[in-house]
Amino acid sequence: MIEDGIPAEFQNESRPIEAVSEPPTENATAGPLFARFSHPRSETRTTIAVVSDTHVSTEKRGTWKVFHRTRERLRTVIADANTRDVDAVVFAGDLTEDGSVEDFETVRSLLADLDVPYVAVPGNHDVPKSFDSHETPPLSSFESEFTPDGFPFHERVGGVDVIGLNSASTPDGTLSDCHDGRISDDQLAWLDRTLPKTDAPIVVSHHNLPGQSDGKDPHSWRSSFPMRNATELADVFSGHDVPLHVSGHLHVPAVAETMGVRELIAPSLCSFPQAYLLFETGPLGTAVRFVPTADEAGTMEAYMHAKKDSARSDALAEMTLDRMDSFPLEDERLLVPNRPA
After folding, report:
1. Contact by Cβ (8 Å): 96, 51
2. Were both Cys, which of 91, 94, 134, 209 would link to 125 (CB 3.0–4.6 Å)?
3. 45: buried, middle or exposed (CB in 10 Å: 19+, 13-18, 0-12)?
């Protein structure tokens, strides 16, 4: 929905916003309600910012990823998170445009201003690839910078169990196809052992489960979708009643379901709509807010880049608009009891 050149979702920033729960929470005005789930739940109210596909670039400009704005968008997230009662920031991959040393150094420099803890999983753009023409730091460097103690990881954040999986590199540390993802057998076995020890898990990987693929429009989703062994991962999730899997990669905000497992696909920070998500988990469930990071002019710039760049980016922008016009994408409010189970 575009009116006067501005996506409707960004036209009236003063409009009333539905409360996350009853009573309204401190972050109820952060942005429109993206989704609300009956699970995960926690006795301890926990707020987590989820940021995906920043694609920070120190040299590139333009394209549908709007590279020349990537540092500015990440600065906005950091400043915004610092003003909210955020317990942690979780990055769902593709922090850099293509893993160059300079881009990682830029990300590291920007994150020095973040006042809360952060963790990250790698995206396909963050890891060494067999066809790279530049130096890319090894996965071990990413692990030491962005994880508690390597992959996979389990980090308790307030009342939430954040599980981080590496879907972006094969055991030898390379990829033959940049967009494909896979969860290693070792990680699947670890996940099977670890999930029973969690109370309110949110599992994060960069690559997606197959719940979004319709198989009809070649421009609707990436040709590499889904991750190579998505069924095996969904089997583990189903076996332990995992309430929520969070991913990025597609650059289209969405909620889907695979084998009974909810998946939330985060918006891209670099391309339209340039937003991040604010998760608030408490006794009533988990509410997710959509938080724009660009003003009206910046939003329109990103939208027009997507429209002009390619048929694929044009389709992604239009699907994003459709979803923004349908917020919340999921609302299980009626299923949430008055007190925790």
Report:
1. no
2. 94
3. middle
